[in-house]
Protein 1
Amino acid sequence: MNHKPAPVSEPILDCLKNRWSPVVFDSRPVDLSVIKSIFEAARWAASCFNEQPWRFIVVERDSVDFGNAIDCLVEANQVWAKDAPLLVFTAVAKQLERNGNPNRCAEHDLGLAVGNLSIQATAHGLSVHQMGGINLSKVRLTYQIPDNFDPVTALAIGYAGDPTQAPPGLSERDASPRSRRPNEATVFGSEGWGQAASYWV
Ligand SMILES: Cc1cc2nc3c(=O)[nH]c(=O)nc-3n(C[C@H](O)[C@H](O)[C@H](O)COP(=O)(O)O)c2cc1C
């Protein structure tokens, strides 16, 4: 299995450091107990008013429906996601159940749930590659998503594969170094927007 730990500047939890988004997946299937565990982790995410606006549609590569699921991705994602043993589509409730008002935190909360799922998956040695590159209307149609929910992303889930066995293009992507903007450019202090918090200056 390919590992690509983040070159962190400060100590962080191992499962955060080891989470990454491969494009080369191994054919190994994911055990049912592991599938249940990652969705249990998602279930316990925080959410605005505990509304849990997220929903997930799971499609296994071995199922007859897998081709339809792959067709819901943009071509650039189809190329590699077709090898993942699990594809998951995400959706959010547009309104709060408590009063019918728009839930402006729905996508934030979905992100928390997917974050939990990704980290739990990492703890199991799995990888989750999230995708915004999906055909939203096709997802809605294929999975009969009702009008009061919006499809948001897809997740390719499986064990990272051996990049040396992958087609050119994919192997280079998985071999490329990981990078992030420094926190000086992200975390601002009370002086205002764009002014790095004093921890880094
Ligand atoms: C909401 C979201 C949408 C993304 N969409 C795509 C996508 O459509 N195709 C893709 O190859 N990667 C996609 N990614 C993966 C990012 O490119 C990847 O997370 C980023 O480059 C950082 O790499 P890392 O996850 O390995 O740390 C997406 C990630 C997120 C969180």
Protein 2
Amino acid sequence: MTSEPRRLGVIFGGASVEHTISVRSAQAVIGAADTERWRVIPLAVSRSGHWLTPEHSRSALDAIQSGAPEEVPEPMIASSTPISHEATSALLDCDAVFPLIHGTTGEDGVLQGFLETLDLPYVGSGVGASAIAMDKARCKQILSQAGIPVAPWIAVACEDWRTDPTGVVRQASQLGYPYFVKPSRGGSSIGISRVNSREEAAEAIAMAFACDSEILIEEAIPTPREIECGVLGSLDGDSPIVSPLGEIRTKRDFYDYTAKYEDPQTELIAPAELDQETTLQLQNVSLQAWRAIGAEGMVRADFLVGPDGQIWLGELNTIPGFTSASMYPRLFEVSGLPLSQLVDRLVELGIERRLARRRFRAQADGGAHQ
Ligand SMILES: Nc1ncnc2c1ncn2[C@@H]1O[C@H](COP(=O)(O)OP(=O)(O)O)[C@@H](O)[C@H]1O
Ligand SMILES: [Mg+2]
């Protein structure tokens, strides 16, 4: 006997700078979801944060498929609330949800908190781990405390910059030139620059502050190799698994926005050519980092490997790209897990997590009332 497919909400678009990538990720996940197991309910969110109904979301995807810009349109009738009754009831009817909004509002715990409040099972990390991974300043503190190598850095608040810009530039120069300046909560390399001399500092810092109220200034790893590792949760409480490693090669100064999405010369190599010792080391550190932030479901750990073979964990992504050109699904594909099975597993993990949380809550309530 075959059972009815369950309803899988796929949330995409959103108010982040990675809107277009999110649309592409959703197209890939929707295209791969096993239709015998899942009936996909698309839930598109416009750049202004308005949720479209499933019907309008589907029309938006159809239009994009036929060549319209990769952009969720704003709702035709202006609404004062970001989410209509119709979109809310479609969301509440879902058996599970796959949040695929990258960056702020989607990957930083905000959407996860909303889904928790609605008691919906969802893919990926919970509120805490999502918020930590998105905030590079907080994340680096936690990672370094766990003994994970991260490039030396300072965090600068907007207030420090406003009151003492000279002092900030002086403090940054102690890291040595060149250094990297980046918004603490960003993505897709937006607002990031490499500063080669004191003269370039102010402009780079102002650019990063245009994206966030806190920034990082980080020692530059010279001519690094960019290596990525996927981590995937396991059902029944088993340890998470790590993927083979992937490498990104760019001809640009660093892996900036253009290199990521526009430059046809950027190469994704999976699996990467690395000796076994480095491979194991990077995979172990990925697992360590997963535990350090309390990740669930999936994480892509991005490393910089120096010319001397020294490794540095650059950042953790709790909603990695799922586009047809993205590294996370590709790394599992090369290890024998096609995207449709990866999606299945991620969704089942979200369902399992909700059941486990309910059990813990029931136990805690029982204990509290004894
Ligand atoms: N400390 C560093 N040394 C060398 N390159 C860096 C450093 N920090 C960032 N980069 C370059 O900038 C890119 C984007 O930085 P990252 O911290 O991953 O931000 P994002 O979240 O925007 O991807 C990296 O992939 C790398 O090419
Ligand atoms: Mg990055």
